[in-house]
Every structure is written in C-alpha cells, then in structure tokens.
Specification:
Low-confidence stretches: none
Shape: globular
CATH superfamily: TT1751-like domain
Radius of gyration: 15 Å
Order of helices and strands: EHEHEHEEHH
Structural class: alpha+beta
Mean pLDDT: 93
CATH architecture: 2-Layer Sandwich
Helix content: 40-55%
C-alpha cells in the first residue's frame, strides 16, 4: 500500500504499553475502542503459524459515524476506523488508513469535513499514544 494513504507513528514503547494507553487516550478524544484483535493469537488459534505481534484496535466516534452513515450507508463497510499496532525494525508502529483517502472510494456530498475531523483526531490519538507510552 502506498504510504500516502497511511498515517504512521513509531515509538520505543512496547506493543503492550501502547495497547494499554490507546483506549484511554482514544476516550479522551471522544473515541471508543469497540474491539481489539490480536492477530497472532487469532492466527495461531486457527492453526496458522504466525510469529509477529499485531493488535488491531477498532475505534469510533459515534457522532462522526452517524454523520456519514446518514448520507451513505455503504460507508459502513469501512467502519469503524482501525489503528494497527505492530513491530517493525525494533520500533512499535501505530498505523491507520487516512479517513480522507478512504472516503474517496465513496461518492458522498459534504463528507470531506467529517473525514478531515476524524483524521485529525486519529492523528492526535496516535501521536499522544506514541509519545506517552
């Protein structure tokens, strides 16, 4: 995937430290964590060897989601937003797809502002999580 569609932050904190802080920081920005997927655990439980640690957090601000879903229910295929936490080259990486880029897949009038607001908040959440851990 092209980097222009991703937002990433690197930190020296462990995946566990980041995973503990992310829900609290998300909540401080009016985003809730709807679910967390431990990809290594899930793959191994299905009999698929997978050595790398990766946690995927589903985050959402229901007020922002309601704005775009009211205009186009098909956006539900891209919700909630996801923040992945994994190791790469000795660093812990937080990564998400830019909501402004994702929105270009849909033809929705007047949704750019909402996508930008969500993107700006995800940046704050990831930046603060990376710095605080």
């Amino acid at each position: 995937m092209k980097q222009e569609f991703l937002i990433t932050y690197a930190t020296d904190a462990s995946i566990e430290q980041v995973s503990e802080r992310l829900p609290e920081i998300s909540q401080n920005h009016k985003f809730g964590v709807l679910g967390t997927h431990d990809l290594k655990e899930k793959m191994v439980s299905k009999g698929v060897p997978f050595e790398r640690e990766c946690r995927v957090f589903e985050v959402c601000n229901p007020h922002q989601a309601q704005k775009v879903l009211s205009s186009a229910m098909e956006v539900s295929t891209a919700l909630p937003c996801r923040i992945s936490v994994y190791e790469e080259d000795g660093k812990t990486i937080l990564a998400t797809i830019k909501p402004t880029s994702l929105l270009t897949l849909f033809d929705i009038d007047n949704a750019e502002q909402t996508a930008k607001e969500v993107e700006d908040t995800l940046i704050l959440i990831m930046k603060e999580t990376a710095a605080a851990s």
